[in-house]
Amino acid sequence: MNAAAATILIVDDELNNREQLEHFLKPDGYRTIGAASGSQALASISDEAPDLILLDVTMPGMDGYEVATVLKNDPATSSIPIIMVTGQAGRGARMVGLDTGVEEYLTKPVDPAELSLRVRNLLRLRVPGESVTNGGSAPKHEAHVQVPVDEAQHRIRYDIVTGLPTGALFLESLQQTLQLASETGATVAVMSIDLDDFSEVNEKLGVAGGDELLRQFGALLQCAGGRDAVGRLYEDKFALALATNDEGSPISVANTIRDAMRQPFEFDGNEVLTTASIGIAVYPVDATDAVELMGHSDTARRQAKEAGGDAFIFYVG
Asked: What is the secondary structure of 186-200 as a DSSP string?
């Protein structure tokens, strides 16, 4: 692959780190774009799939492990090589990173020569034509069947299991909801939601049973109050946005979700019980930026899960 034609997405919440990596890559002639969070990275990829990704691990909201898992589990983005660039050293951290499916793992401070070699080698292994970007297609290769742009974009924007918007499209919808709220004076509650003990459901019912639970849960969120924005971010993590002038509406919606999840779920003659952990951040009280709100709701969700699950918690800054 021609270096001049390769686009590299640098994902790091620290501007200085992004600028340093861009500086290291500049002599090789790569085109670079940046993202300050996992959510921004997914939104950027939905607009233009890069040829390679440099991905930080520790970030607010979605961390690098979660972003890598989303990308590697999606057929539309699974072939994009990822190099994790992190300050987390040690074999354990490296193994966790590689287990997500990333191709390489670099620790900070990054050696410019090593970075250059690893990027060059990964780009050399890519099949020309794999990258799907807006505004045209890459050169075709005899052994490669290129995914149509429209189909690839649909895969990135809509979850294949639930049919719900993915994280990238949810973020777009949330940004539109916040813009409207700024004009009308409404508040917007952003909910980060996941299923408690979902891995146990998969073990008992298998992947098909787990997927069916995810489909039903997605439908529940739409009925419970996801008319403004709802999406499946990754694995069993969902998000919902609710624009309202009623301070009690987020609590009512959260309780509706919890009550519905307490009912037994049946699949293929088997029955399981599961609950939901919910974190809530409110515009404009907690933040006015969509990405920041999602990060705050994620923080509150983790607190709800650490408290034992089957609960909702409002973000406290």
From this structure: -EEEEEEEEETTHHH
